[in-house]
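Section 3.1: Structural characterization of target chains.
Under the original work plan, the team committed to producing a structural model for every single-chain target entering the pipeline before any wet-lab resources were allocated. The record below documents one such target. The sequence was received from the expression subgroup and is listed exactly as submitted; it comprises 158 residues.
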Amino acid sequence: MPETPNPEELIKWAGWLLSLVLGLIGIGVTFSVLYIRIRHAEKLAQRKERHDAIDNALRLLTDFEDKSLDYWTAKDSKYTKAHIITAQQRLSFSIKQLSRITASNFPDKEMAEIRKSATLDMETKRRPISANSERILRLSISTSKMQNLSLFAKNGKS
């Protein structure tokens, strides 16, 4: 006949088995929570990177617009053609980075309009020009259009 197990022995084995199961569940929960926290931290880092890139691009767009407006409207502007071209290149580079980060298309049409408004005929056009001129109006409208692109939108789901 088989031997009847001792109740103390059964309690000891049940306790050991319960400890093992609870330990494994604890390890599983720990790794699950760690995985969730890591994913959340990555999303926050990506959102921060995107928002920083947007802020930088908007700052450079404003800087470019200010320099261009000063160059064209002020008689004794402290900005030269080189300043405008350099500011445009920095803006273009910044928007290319933002486009890569957000996996969006580079706004070619808008950049071409901004560049045309700011740099067309720079070598031959006389300045200062009136603050109400067509060039100044085009520059202001094109930079406003650029700022309103979805590329520059900050939202919580990005």
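The radius of gyration is 31 Å.
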